[in-house]
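HUMAN:
Could you generate one sequence with tokenized structure?
ASSISTANT:
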Amino acid sequence: MQRRYVTADVFTDRIFGGNPLAVVLDAEGLTTEQMQAIATEFNYSESTFVLPAKDPSHTAHVRIFTQSIEVPFAGHPNVGTAVVLARELEALGFPPAEKFVFEEKAGLVHVRLVREGGKVVAAELTAPEALAVGEVVSVADAAACLSLLPNEIRTTVHPPETVSVGLRFLAVEVSSREALKRARPDIAAHERVLPFVGTDGVYAYCRGAAPGELHARMFAPLDAPAEDPATGSATAAVIALLASLRPERDGDASWRIEQGVDMGRPSLLLGRTEKRNGTVTAVHVAGHAVCVMRGNIDL
């Protein structure tokens, strides 16, 4: 029994950058255990499995696995799966689509396809859940998780706290780009702090020179690999948080986030937030994706 797959580098417009993703296109009939084993074999931060949609008005049912668990939602898997699937369907003669709707554990994920020269090269997802802000972590614990000093954690806008628009992360603003570059995950601190706030990932970021510009890193050593090159779900949650804290009750904002630079896999994520009557009503994250490899899995 063979299953087709395509790998892509996501949130980049060139191979060997961004965040690698494996997309298994013929996943119908695979058990959860088989999907987990395949994801572990690929050894990427996430792999996706494309199944027929439960509702025929939707595009596909997509399941997302890290190397060790299934997750309800993630950013680069949605962007990469959309680009890969669009190209595969159009190669088979299906008419070009403008958007996809993926059924996922967190809910429906709407994805807008972006073309250049008639070819799908990028996609923009809309987060499936409203912003949820959870537990606050002490400055000392946040600093320990990042191997930084407590005075390198910035709290003037928000404390270190968990945020989610479908998948939970600990969001920590650091004081400078230099501090972000020096950050390293401390596994003992992660094991001590994170299980009690319901996450295994720390999204550290600092402000850039321009409005809406962020530099970010995401560490999850409890769910290898230790650092993620591009994390769309965490990016979406953090820009939703920052938009919610702005004084304006209404307005749209654009965001530009660089991630993966310090680990040699530069990634670019483009965000949009919509705010109405003091509430963030929608958050979007977009990026390019390039196909790298394709083949078959023998089961």
Notes: The chain has two domains: 2-128+288-298, 132-285. The two ends are 5 Å apart (CA to CA).
